[in-house]
């Protein structure tokens, strides 16, 4: 009992410290031109007791809720699929033939010219481009675009219905029905279902993989069907985003450290998923002769830090340091620095220069950081704070969720392009501005439903809850989206579509898995 009490207090302290630090530094990132670390730490210290008290109340309430009966009758995955898909149809008619922005022109260029690159997931590029090209053959590009949107809506609804079925097996029909209602009625799902970006199918498969993984880890036994589900859903998920491959690799190590032999089957299914992903992606690369993607996609943090230091403290740097930065960012592209998105500088970054003398540029990065630690810290805070601070206004460069049809980057195209065929153009225009541009942040209360920092904190709360309740297997599974979140923090921008996999994971994290016998869970707690 004493150990459990000590653990609970430690978890409340951990969560309180995390929130207090993120709140104080996040406020400074949003409202000040430069952070004040000393003041931020003082504010965090003042916030800590309040944060701990609020978290303690929430966690104690969760402990009582965990004892409630899991009823609700039977759950039908087929009915859930039909309801979820039906809820997406009105948005399809409003956005007909769908939203084709973001990277769509670049992906279509690959398919129509035959010059492929791994910069975007090949599986998604081929699926998207194949549908549009089929439409061209049939006489209408818009028909092909609509075909892709319908396929995506259907696949997303199927992933959600299958995830709900897994939740029903773990937590009962009531939890599954509430989850299905969330997948059907939460507006972001409707918006994303008709948005032709890889994040949609990735997020649906991520939710399904997370549900199946938790079922496999918490169940007394894992049969072959469940293992195959983890392997194939996980492989599909990882084929659509490399972030997931890295997160799953780290998660398997965590699982084996925590549970050793007991986790071998679940870890084996995850490793099989990784093997299937690597094999399939290799086959796609060989078949399309795809060129390798750009190295600088993984370098957003150092690019932002060096650009900020060069802009604000250029006179404090040596000639060698300035020359090195100018070589990596030719044409003084460091002057394009935008605190919230790395793309302006990243697009001009010269990865070949970096590869020619990696050691030299690493030394320069370290030496500049030693001279300009404040610039490095502020570059990091400004670039990522929207993904961990529940801010009141969306202030990231670019749209929260880009909607409609892109009319840029089609220089390669000499035929009919995808065009807007909306059956409700005024509704589409209103949504594009009120929701797409700012994520509804201008609407009191409603905006918090789409606040990226708030969504992340709900996710973190559910993980802390599993620790508080001593449900270590569920906690281990909850670490998968947390690890994925860590990889997204390294990305070029914190925008609405990047929050989507974490939104999709919330119903799985919120439900209480009941498969593990209490005695066995307590034994795991003792080992932990």
| Fraction of helical residues | 55-70%
Distance between the termini: 15 Å
Radius of gyration based on Cα positions: 24 Å
- Which ranges are low-confidence, i.e. pLDDT below 50, for 5 or more consecutive residues? 516-520, 522-528
Estimate what percentage of residues fall within beta strands.
Answer: under 5%
H-E string: HHHHHHHHHHHHHHHHHHHHHHH
The class by helix and strand makeup works out as mainly alpha
Give the integer mean of the pLDDT values: 92
Largest sheet: none
- The number of helical segments is 23
- The shape, in one word, is globular
Number of domain modules? 3
Number of strands: 0
Overview in brief:
The protein is mainly alpha-helical.
Characterization of this structure:
With 528 residues, the chain is mainly α. It has 3 domains: 2-68, no CATH class; 77-293 and 403-520, no CATH class; 295-387, no CATH class. It is 70% helix and 0% strand. It is built from 23 helices and no strands. The protein has helices at 2-31, 37-65, 77-95, 104-113, 122-138, 141-171, 173-185, 187-193, 198-218, 224-240, 242-259, 264-288, 300-313, 319-328, 343-346, 351-356, 358-371, 373-384, 425-437, 452-468, 472-488, 496-510, 518-527. Helix 3 (77-95) packs antiparallel against helix 6 and helix 13 packs across helix 18. Residues 516-520 and 522-528 have low confidence and may be disordered.
Secondary structure: elements and pairs:
Blueprint: H1 2-31, H2 37-65, H3 77-95, H4 104-113, H5 122-138, H6 141-171, H7 173-185, H8 187-193, H9 198-218, H10 224-240, H11 242-259, H12 264-288, H13 300-313, H14 319-328, H15 343-346, H16 351-356, H17 358-371, H18 373-384, H19 425-437, H20 452-468, H21 472-488, H22 496-510, H23 518-527
Helix pairs in contact: 1-2, 1-20, 3-6, 3-7, 3-8, 4-5, 5-6, 6-7, 6-9, 9-10, 9-21, 9-22, 10-11, 10-12, 11-12, 11-21, 13-18, 14-17, 17-18, 20-21, 20-22, 21-22
């Amino acid at each position: 009992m004493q150990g459990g009490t000590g653990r609970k207090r430690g978890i409340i302290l951990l969560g309180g410290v995390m929130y207090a630090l993120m709140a104080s530094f996040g406020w400074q990132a949003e409202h000040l031109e430069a952070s004040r670390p000393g003041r931020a730490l003082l504010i965090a210290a003042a916030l800590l007791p309040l944060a701990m008290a609020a978290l303690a109340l929430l966690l104690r309430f969760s402990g009582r809720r965990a004892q409630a009966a899991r009823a609700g009758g039977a759950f039908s995955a087929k009915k859930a699929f039909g309801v979820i898909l039906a809820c997406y149809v009105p948005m399809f008619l409003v956005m007909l033939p769908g939203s084709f922005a973001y990277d769509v022109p670049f992906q279509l260029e690959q398919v129509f010219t035959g010059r492929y690159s791994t910069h975007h997931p090949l599986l998604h590029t081929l699926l998207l481009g194949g549908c549009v090209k089929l439409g061209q053959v049939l006489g209408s590009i818009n028909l092909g675009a609509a075909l892709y949107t319908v396929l995506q809506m259907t696949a997303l609804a199927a992933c959600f219905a299958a995830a709900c079925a897994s939740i029903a097996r773990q937590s009962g029909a009531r939890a599954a029905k509430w989850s299905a209602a969330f997948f059907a009625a939460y507006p972001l799902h409707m918006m994303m279902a008709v948005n032709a970006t890889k994040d949609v199918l990735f997020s649906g498969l991520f939710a399904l993989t997370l549900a199946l993984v938790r079922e496999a880890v918490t169940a007394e036994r894992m049969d072959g069907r469940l293992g195959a589900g983890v392997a194939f859903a996980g492989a599909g998920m990882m084929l659509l985003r490399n972030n997931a491959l890295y997160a799953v690799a780290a998660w398997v190590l965590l699982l084996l450290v925590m549970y050793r032999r007991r986790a071998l089957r679940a870890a084996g299914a995850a490793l099989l998923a990784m093997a299937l992903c690597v094999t399939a992606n290799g086959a796609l690369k060989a078949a399309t002769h795809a060129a390798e993607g750009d190295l600088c996609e993984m370098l957003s943090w150092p690019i932002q830090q060096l650009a900020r230091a060069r802009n604000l403290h250029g006179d404090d740097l040596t000639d060698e340091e300035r020359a090195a930065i100018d070589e990596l960012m030719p044409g003084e592209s460091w002057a394009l620095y935008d605190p919230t998105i790395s793309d302006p500088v990243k697009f001009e970054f010269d990865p070949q220069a970096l590869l020619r003398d990696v050691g030299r540029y690493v030394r320069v990065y370290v030496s500049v950081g030693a001279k300009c630690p404040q610039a490095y810290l502020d570059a990091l805070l400004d670039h990522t704070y929207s993904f961990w601070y529940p801010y009141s206004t969306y202030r990231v460069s670019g749209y929260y969720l880009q909607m409609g049809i892109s009319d840029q980057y089609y220089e390669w195209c000499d035929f009919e392009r995808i065009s807007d065929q909306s059956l409700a153009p005024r509704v589409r225009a209103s949504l594009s501005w009120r929701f797409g541009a700012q994520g509804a942040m201008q609407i009191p209360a409603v905006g918090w439903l789409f606040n990226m920092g708030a969504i992340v904190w709900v996710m973190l709360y559910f993980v802390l809850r599993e620790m508080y309740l001593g449900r270590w297997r569920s906690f281990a599974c909850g670490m998968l989206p947390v690890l994925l979140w860590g990889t997204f923090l390294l990305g070029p921008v914190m925008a609405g579509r990047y929050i989507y996999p974490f939104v999709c994971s919330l119903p799985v994290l919120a439900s209480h898995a009941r498969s593990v016998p209490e005695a066995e869970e307590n034994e795991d707690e003792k080992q932990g």
